[in-house]
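Something for you to look into today, if you have time. Could you write out one complete protein record for me, on any chain you like? Leave the record below and I will have a look.
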Amino acid sequence: MSEQSISPSFSPIEYWHMTLRRKWLVLAIFFACVGVGGILCVVWPESYRSSTLILVESQKIPEEYVKTLIGSSIEERLNSIQQQVMSRTLLTQMIQEFDLYSEAVRQGGNEAVIERLRKDIRVTTSTTHSARGGVDAFAISFAHQDPQLAMKVTAKLASQFIEENLRSREQLVTGASEFIEQELAMAKERLESQERSLTLFKTKYMGELPEQVPANLSALDRLSLQHGTTLDALQRAADRLSLIEKTFKEYEALGSTTAGAVQGPGGVVVVDSPYLRLKELEKTLTTLAAEYKDNYPDIIALKQEIQALKAQIGKAARENKESDKATIVTKETKPIDAYLRELGRQREESKLEIVSLKERLLRLKDQMKEFEARVEKAPAREQELMLLNRDYGNLKENYRSLMDKKLNARLSENLEKRQKGEQFRILDPANLPQKAETPDRLKIMLLALGLGCGLGVGAVVALESLRPVFRRSDEVESLLQLRVLASIPNFSSVSGHSQKLLSRGAMTPRSAEAMAGRLLSARMPDDKRNGTYAGTSVGGEAGLPAVETRGLSGQLGIGRALDLIAKWSPLSGVAEQFRVAAARLVLLQSGAGSRVTVITSAIKGEGKSVVAANLAYVLASNLGKPTLLIDGDLKCPTVHQCMGIPQFPGLRDVLEGERSVDSCLHRVGELPLWILPSGVASGRMLELSDIHHISGMLSELKKQYEYIIIDAPPILPLADMHMLAGMADTLIFVVRAGLTPRGVAEKAIRTIGAPSNACIILNGLEAAGVPYYMREAYDYLSEKKKVGST
């Protein structure tokens, strides 16, 4: 068997039946709650609440023109004003002004009633879905036992709300304006500082700024062109110097006296004079000036060269004059070759020109390096300048924004001072209450009724949940994991429930009355349990036998004989379920040989003896099987009472060795049914070894009877059942519906080891647990019987 626990779950019908079972508990709780509600309605002091409605008027100047500095919503500002109005100082002044709660103030001072005053003051808001949205109005109310005083306090609270709103708005706007002015001054100072930093940066890195990159590249191109032109001029000067050196050497070698004449490659005499060079340069300058501007690099270079050549010619002319004078003085001493002198002069001029061109070339290279360095540093300067410009732009934008806010703050300040902004206006003055707010007697009584019903039903459900029991066969199968052989309805249904479960066709009205009075359980408080009635001495009536029996208390009576429902009401639903159990038992034990069935329960009072008696009777009377019923519950025997036979002699006499088995058997009428009662206690206590002798006795009895049923003692309180369980071919475990706790039944099954040959009979099933198809079948049988008897 799986050791699982199933949490109880109830249907609405089961809740209803639970309520009916414990109706007195539900009624007690219900009337207690109603009584408490009635007492509250009487003793609760009356309280009157006065209220006033205050309208929230929007700003009179459109916000497109003047934006208010009150950024918080109306709800937030209203909450802030409420905290200020309900401060300890203002409430103390109000208590003293209106003499509120004078008795409580005398006993505990103002501190004792401030919290009470706060609870009596209530502020509620009303919202709409307008375009402006938010709160359109709010109500202030105050509750007090004196309606006049409640009205005065409410009016005072309304005036305080309006005054506090005006004061807080003006303070907020003034403070915001002062703050913006301070921020504006600081922003202006930061902006000016950033402007100075930007100016210093541009001054320091002049020429390396990003916007100067195109000019630097243009200058670099111009210098590169001048560098090339200078290289060409240097090459030409070097070639001319080389030619002059060559002519000079050839002239000295030939010793020619021709001044300034040099024989060329074709035999032509060439005169190299600066005048010819000057004319050639002027011609070239005229040609370039017609095509380019004056700032063209070649034009500038030609002009410089022409000026240098003119200076050279002037210098040569002055030297010639001095030379002529010297020649006149020294003419008689040594003649001078003028051409050779001219060649020397031209050689010196070429050397000077080459030196000048080289210096110029060096200057151009230095300038090119400088401009290249500027271009290379431009990206880094661009990043630094971008950071400075970004900070400057942010500061400038912040300054402009603060200027706009300052202007708007001044407008908003003037708006609040002239009371053109949002205001609170009393729409409905404080009223004089005519009807008490508390206690609401109708609501209190309704709550008491609901609470009484809820607590009553809750208590019932809690009791059912804390001590869960079995009420349906599917619950038994789910928890105990054993087959349910049959579900026996409650015996009280023989005379109850409008005869829907049982048929009274075989009984007279008087016999039905007798059964209704005698089949009730003496153990259960609701008197609706099977097989536990402690009978009393009552004479037979309505055709029922008056058999003397011994009840649970030891007194003689006849009530237990009526538990044999299969005999006295054979067409009832209870008897039918015993026939179902017998049929299933026969099918379960089908095969050769005799079968021993042990019937037990977890604890005493679950109806196992009644089940054993009725099951044995059905096997004998309806199925015609030779059956032996043994009362093995030696400590609390009841089989003899159910069957209406003497208790002596019985099983105890056989176990003590005083009598044989055959001499102790009692046959029931002409039926193949024999009973072995328990016997009367002799004072000697039977040991477990004596119980073990039953096994040998059963071996002999199996040869005579086809079915042997043993009414065994309960499992948990006694040890006898542990011996009898091993003798059974089939073990039937009786569970009382609505009585046996689930944990007890599960523990009992575990105690005997959960044998595979065990099954369950659910006894005492209430009407709610009987399936609908069983009720319909019993109704059909009942109607059929009535028709037949008619």
User: Anything to note?
Assistant: Residues 72 and 78 are 10 Å apart (CA to CA). The chain is about 55% helix and 10% strand. The radius of gyration is 65 Å.
